[in-house]
């Protein structure tokens, strides 16, 4: 990789070991993918929950935190993805003091680096939405795909160690979705119906994600008439990125780089794969369990927007959850604060639900809290969450928010093909 | 068994040899593994229930989210990681995780690497030359 004098100096250690680590990480990853040089980034979104970090990751961060301030402060605005422990709720969820202790150490280290603890995966809805053409280092699949696709900004998936490297150096290796040539369409899908709610938008994203054969694929979707809402396209993209591990889609007539088909394909577009109502219904059915047992309902992944929190609150108004079923809703600290102010939190908790702030369910030791609370059968309207949790020992099922709430009230799965 | 060398495009980490664990299936540390037990835990994964600890893990493509970038080092430091990752197609997360963990990684072969190496075979992984050699 061609490095500037300043980048070479950081790599040589002249600005201390933190920035040297950053440039080494950038160079190793950039060389692996054939990057010619670095790109300057303007924002970093850093995923680093304590479950993923483990003792090894937290010890590494503490080593950086112990360095002199001029050597370890981040050089571009850096915000965090959801944490793993909500200190107001962790005992109710039967998380352990060991988990909370690791979380406290990680937070203290990040604060020493000047990282802003926003603790959200919906930073594009709540903190600082990116701009078309802006180069970023975003470290959550959902935030990356939203930034690339809906805003036309430019980022690869920057996992924690590389997002941190970008924060410390202000750089990322210039490859992949920073480059025009990787933003062209590779597969074409035609929606033959319009998804009817968040879970269906997620299911459509899941179907397209399953068809992706590598990170470098860029699906193009036609047939969506009229813009989806921010939450609909959020669920669609999050599921696509989760099932497909791809960071960009184009929705013709909706997203900024795809006013028409010829704008995103260099030659004739490939034959379109139709996606219809039956395909989405089949995807949903593939998660239908054998009986109506229900332990926990989770709304998360991505964290809920203010609008989603209001919808949930309205659905729960005057209702009481069944004593044997837990209902959790995860949102960002900013949205939680708004919900507290507007009475939304109180509505949800009066019904027996738990509002979680600054965390996301699958990032908070999902296996351990499932075992501690006896949760196995889980309902959610998030296709992304359902995709992840199978490997964590759950039997997850996908349903609408209305079906999830009704089931939580009845104490068994109702109205969702059980 | 005849000796064969398979050429990839790029590698990260130091040379290593060991026993292959192979499947034409995809990989994410968060989605697919019980990292405490060291086994594949995702029902439906072709390696479900099998231990990956100390194995040369040979799989198709990287899938899933970003957590693997931290998790590989955590697994390696607990001595509960694979010995190397060999993929038809890595994504940035695998490369970032391998770089952070100093875990050998090679991808982009001339052949489908999961179809030419069998589970139980011994292989040598050389990231510098981006080759996998059957021993």
Q: What integer is the average pLDDT of chain B?
A: 96
- What is the name of the CATH topology of the largest domain in chain A? Aconitase, domain 3
Based on the coordinates given, report the CATH architecture of chain B. 3-Layer(bba) Sandwich
- Mind telling me the C-alpha Rg of chain B? 13 Å
CATH class of the largest domain in chain A: Alpha Beta
Largest sheet of chain B: 8 strands, mixed
Task: Identify the CATH architecture of the largest domain in chain A.
Answer: 2-Layer Sandwich
Tally the helices of chain A: what do you get?
A: 17
CATH H level of chain B: which superfamily? Phosphohistidine domain
Distance between the termini of chain A: 56 Å
Proportion of strand residues of chain A: 5-15%
Largest interface: A-B, 47 and 42 residues
How does the overall form of chain A come out from the CA principal axes?
A: globular
Structural category of chain B: alpha/beta
| CATH topology assignment of chain B | Glucose Oxidase, domain 1
The total of beta strands of chain B comes to 10
Strand arrangement, major sheet of chain A: 12-11-10-13-14
CATH class descriptor of chain B? Alpha Beta
Helix content of chain B: 10-25%
Oligomer: heterodimer
Give the spatial strand order of the biggest sheet of chain B.
Answer: 1-10-9-3-6-7-8-2
